[in-house]
């Protein structure tokens, strides 16, 4: 595990975007695993700015997102598909056909989960997966207690996660369920970059770095990955020894 400590959110976003751009130059047809939420929005802005400044193309890139709310159509302003199109995809030259987000409105959710894992397999796996971290240690929507051997599946969201995500909801309530890439799927990524910013993540980051590996704190599994980089700002590492 490599820990890169940065000053603030802006620097975290720039470093994350630089890491991705570097990998894209090495492998222009890479598969990039992406996250939503508040943490990566600055990174998307940096990637958009960098793409036009440095002439970096996403034409051959494929993306797979971690998760999606059950019951929200792609056009719903709070769906993660909408978030990705709105904040990232429509500002770069990526082919939308090469962007994958689980379909939370699928009639058969079990089949959707199976199809999602098959898609990732057919892509040859994820080259670099970007993660945020929940205050309860969730990664993707893998809540505490999720077995480490889970592939993509449907989860019931905890109250704390629904509460934390209320801030994004412009319409209606935070859904009760989501589809998420499983921990096994995430751990099969060749490289993982976890981003952490702000004081509210300080307890989670301390538990991740200093705590033991347990599925009661899902992010702890990442310590078993052989190519994990954590990019964390000063506020979020404040409780580290
Ligand atoms: C989002 C995701 C979640 C978030 C986590 C942190 O696709 O999978 O695990 O990364 O909830 O969210 P923020 O960044 O809003 O603090």
From TrEMBL:
Its EC number is 3.5.99.6. The keyword Transmembrane helix does not apply. The active site is at residues 67, 136, 138, 143. Residues 17-226 form the Glucosamine/galactosamine-6-phosphate isomerase domain. The keyword Lyase does not apply. Signal peptide: none annotated. Keywords: Carbohydrate metabolism, Hydrolase. Pathway: Amino-sugar metabolism; N-acetylneuraminate degradation; D-fructose 6-phosphate from N-acetylneuraminate: step 5/5. Transmembrane segments: none annotated. InterPro entries: Glc/Gal-6P_isomerase, Glucosamine6P_isomerase, Glucosamine6P_isomerase_CS. One of its GO terms (molecular function) is glucosamine-6-phosphate deaminase activity. It is an enzyme of class 3 (hydrolase). It holds the Pfam family Glucosamine_iso. It catalyses: alpha-D-glucosamine 6-phosphate + H2O = beta-D-fructose 6-phosphate + NH4(+). NCBIfam families: nagB (TIGR00502). Belongs to the glucosamine/galactosamine-6-phosphate isomerase family. NagB subfamily. Catalyzes the reversible isomerization-deamination of glucosamine 6-phosphate (GlcN6P) to form fructose 6-phosphate (Fru6P) and ammonium ion. This is Glucosamine-6-phosphate deaminase.
């Amino acid at each position: 595990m490599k820990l890169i400590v940065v000053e603030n959110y802006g620097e975290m976003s720039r470093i994350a975007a630089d890491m991705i751009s570097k990998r894209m130059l090495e492998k222009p047809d890479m598969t990039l695993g992406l996250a939503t939420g508040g943490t990566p929005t600055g990174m998307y802005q940096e990637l958009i700015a960098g793409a036009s400044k440095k002439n970096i193309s996403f034409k051959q890139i494929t993306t797979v997102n971690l998760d999606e709310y059950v019951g929200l159509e792609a056009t719903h302003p709070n769906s993660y598909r909408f978030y990705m199109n709105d904040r990232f995809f429509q500002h770069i030259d990526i082919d939308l056909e090469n962007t994958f987000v689980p379909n939370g409105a699928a009639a058969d959710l079990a089949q959707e989960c199976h199809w999602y894992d098959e898609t990732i397999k057919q892509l040859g796996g994820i080259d670099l997966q970007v993660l945020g971290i929940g205050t309860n240690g969730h990664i993707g929507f893998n809540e505490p207690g999720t077995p480490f051997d889970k592939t993509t599946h449907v989860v019931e969201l905890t109250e704390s996660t629904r509460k934390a995500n209320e801030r994004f909801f412009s319409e209606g309530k935070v859904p009760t369920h989501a589809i998420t890439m499983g921990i096994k799927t995430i751990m099969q990524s060749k490289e993982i970059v976890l981003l952490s910013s702000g004081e509210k993540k300080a307890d989670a980051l301390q538990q991740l770095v200093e705590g033991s590996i347990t599925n009661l704190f899902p992010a702890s599994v990442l310590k078993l990955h052989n190519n994990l980089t954590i990019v964390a700002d000063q506020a979020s590492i404040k409780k580290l020894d």
